[in-house]
Here is the input.
Amino acid sequence: MIVPLATGIHHTSYASELALRNTRGEKARLGLGILALGALPFLLDSYWLSVVNAIGIAAIGAIGLNILVGFTGQISLGQGGFLAVGAFTSALLSGRAGVPIPVAIAAAVVVTAIGGVIAGLPALRLKGLYLAIATLGSQEIIEFVIRRWRWLTGGQGFLEAPPLGVLGWHVQRATFERTWYWVILGAAALGAAAARNVFRTALGRSFMAVRDHEVAASTIGVNVTRAKLGAFALSSGYVGLAGALTAHYSGTVSWERFTREVSVLYLGMIIVGGLGSIAGSIYGAAFLLLLPPLLSALADAVRTTAPFLADQLPALQVAAVGLVIMLFLIFEPRGLDRLWRRVRDYFGSWPFRY
Amino acid sequence: MISREYAFLLNGSTLASGRPVLELADIGLRFGGIQAIDGVGLAVTQGTIHSIIGPNGAGKSSLINCVSGLYRPQRGRISLHHGDGAVELVGRKPHELARLGIARTFQNIELFRHLSVLENLLLGRHTRMSLSLLPALVWFGPARRQEIAHRALVEEVIDRLALQAVRHRPVSTLPYGLAKRVELGRALCMQPALLLLDEPMAGMNAEEKEDMARHLLDVNRLAGLTIVLVEHDMDVVMDISHRVTVLDFGKRIADGTPDEVRSDPRVIEAYLGRDVA
Here is the structure.
């Protein structure tokens, strides 16, 4: 990926060149972003804050999926299944076995990572569409186990998950969304930074090498088997974290939240956001989860002036998501991340063209 | 081309010059009913440029693929000699061979096309870098130190191959000749014991060919690397090779210095055909 450098930046050490942000503008933008995120829970009501929280959790899951699909080139339709593994693991451990919730969430990450490696075994032989179907297979198997294994979920595919709490402290009902906001923000920020870091080291580069050319990767010494399974493990770890957070955030876990449609929605997020981009995963999650509530809000706003439109808008939500994915594939296959870069570069040199 | 003194040795072999570094004995490779390579043997001497030539379909690329582990010959042995003994290469996976010091380039450029020149070259360092997850997640500390340490060698390769101006360019935007050079650079970054080049000058214009030949000579004479070269351009092969092996229909028909091979009647026949009269 090429980074158009700001004029007058002359690196004098490899360390300074490796920094992600160099100019005052870039650092100021980061500062403004942090400020905005800090102010958000005080500006939004609890409904919109719940939307933001859902986006935060989805962003973690989307980063996970992007590690696999966008960075390693292994397509997966099993996202929903892995979210379910994370959610049910954490709910079972904390609810039934009484494990402290942070430990249960950590365990869910590990268990989902292991599950990901097992589900990733077909990737050693299969590519593209064939792999997509194989991962869809693991999604179906996971769903089946959750719905039918009596001992695990009572045969209903439905479990209670205890609310978040550490050492006697529990989330209070009055400040529920706001407390969760900080928890999710922390997890998402750390997760995003860690993923960004992986892809500027040898480990992440070997994933991208496998994506771009498996044979060439093997001849420079990349163990393709290890790289693919490693990518499945890392990716599923993120997805497991998202699943576990969903479980404790919503208080109940049910298989209906982790269906094939969820897998497809997540693929939509990373396509709209930008394949092979960590920031893009976040943009994509935000975009696709903001679209329905924004359309509803629009419907409410025009109810008096255009009742016909107001009636139709909610029905159009699903179609709108599909339409947006199609438009992105046609006009900006590299997603929102690329779009944002272009806007930034345009204004960076404004009023000149370049 | 050489513009500074270098701190790193690119040659990963500790074998004394003049000793055989790679030995192929009685290699047989069959695809279904086609015998692609039939009983070929050859020895590559440390510090030389050893060319493998032959008409189309002679089995040159297949032979290179056997040495780099992409094909597994049904018959024969391939041994790589190190300072302290030899290892058998047949039956090992390509990534294990890379670790043993076999580096290669491809006939059609096989770079990691979404990555920059720098990232492609750094991938050449893969076998010598730690892949631990935790430092990678954290970045600050061991992971960052490692990136900077390996960057130093990569920068020397960039300097040797005059790639400074395109360091940050995505490789997919590079002109053909430069992309070929980046692929050579990626192999050099591995500090290999043996460099296998599959038609490094295919499709190049005269100027690009001269550049590439110059770089190969630098790599061989100054860095001391042993090169096995598959190439169609006879002028280049005869000019820069120490030794030439000629294949035809999967069999070795000649082996010797460029002058010996040039005048060998069987080579002339393979290339020009025989007078039927």
